[in-house]
Give the backbone structure.
Amino acid sequence: MTTDKTWAPLFERLRTTTGAGQEDLQALAALPIALRHYGENQAVLRDGEQPSDCCLIVDGFCVRSKTIADGKRQILSIHIPGDLPNLQNLHYATVDHDLVALSDCTLAFIGHKALKDLIAQRPGVGNMFWRDTLVDAAISREWIVNVGQRSTTSRLAHLIVELRERLRLAGRVIDDMFALPLTQEQLGEAMGVTSVHTNRILRDLRIAGVLELQRGTVRILNEHKLQELAQFDGRYLHLSPSS
Amino acid sequence: MTTDKTWAPLFERLRTTTGAGQEDLQALAALPIALRHYGENQAVLRDGEQPSDCCLIVDGFCVRSKTIADGKRQILSIHIPGDLPNLQNLHYATVDHDLVALSDCTLAFIGHKALKDLIAQRPGVGNMFWRDTLVDAAISREWIVNVGQRSTTSRLAHLIVELRERLRLAGRVIDDMFALPLTQEQLGEAMGVTSVHTNRILRDLRIAGVLELQRGTVRILNEHKLQELAQFDGRYLHLSPSS
DNA sequence: CGTTGGGTTGATCGGTATCAAATAGCGTGG
DNA sequence: CCACGCTATTTGATACCGATCAACCCAACG
């Protein structure tokens, strides 16, 4: 059965962040799902659509983004295995941004009706999911701080550290390395700077021996320097049920 | 009874955005609340606290903010009458930012326990509130776009238009004017620029005949120019139950 | 009054955008 | 296998937006 692999990263997260009960998780795993694959830069959801399913990222990376009138694009969040990037559509019909696959992705689609029925039957599932959307919101708020106040170097460091913490939960970090399949252009769009500038910041970090990013893989070279730059305080991730 | 005035702006919003039923709203209005007043720049919640109540803004303005290590502050959201700025604490204990009163404020505090009991009894109330936190998250995402991609002028215009749309729902807009009790320093912290620069942008907008901001009151002078600058698309506010 | 906090303006500096061009990597088809 | 073309990365030169520093104004208020 592939079910295990499908749900594993989500369940891992829910267990540690919400203290989810085994019964709720089993009920969840019993829901009918449809697996679909997406390729690089393929849109999963487009601004304005009204999806009838929520999707779970089983494997790969996706981003939420918005494009404004003059063509500039802002990446709003980076999503990793175990994330439910459009849970919000359970409660409002229309997506107000794009959701794009960064790399080859496997997504599991879960119908709204099945999900709503389960939540009605098991309030604990609803609470888990509500909390999940709240943590998503907390991450967005920290993203605002990142773009609004930190220097570009700190900004990149912070983004890297946050991603690593979240990927760790999903079991996707090996030693000092993890996947970050964003081009420099996309990293720039996440940070609100150009790709040229992103390139120079990456060079500085490489020369300073902090980290290197090659072919979509980050390697941390100096944890101490990285922390100093990122000033990362992970409380906003609310990683324990009681926090 | 003051209850009417207390709940009015929230109910107004819930009715139009979630199509809330009268019974759910009545049950909500029956909850015991405690009214408290706050003065300018007084902290309602501090980063790290673990509140046992959620607060409803009855009158006045509050902001969420975060201060980073070097002392820089980012304003994350502006809250107006009818907002529930720490609903998230129903699901996680610790606040991860500050909540500060901008002006003289009246807040109504509602105990978590009473709220949770009501939600358990009336799932419709839970759904309304969940949705409310989701719209809050959507506003945060648009805030990221604002800070990350728009020119400072557009950024300010967008902030103004969003606030006006939200204040309209709360019945707080009269003709072309509404209250915006932020100093230029605070407006700058909302937009990720300095107060000096905010001052110059405001001057430009005044000279261009777009809007003026005096003693905490905005007056729109040229709606057309304002729209052109803001490029505001309010779908992310999800103002109708079906959107 | 004097004090204080916001607002306003000017001068200068630095970080980032922009424009341009060269290089490197990688899949495709000849 | 190599040539080709596409895309991403890298570097340089220059322009400009916004930060910073400094001073001054102004209205509110004790």
Observations:
- Residues 151-152, 193-194, 196-197, 200 of chain B lie near DNA strand D (CB under 10 Å from a C1').
- The domain at 3-143 of chain B is CATH 2.60.120.10 (Jelly Rolls).
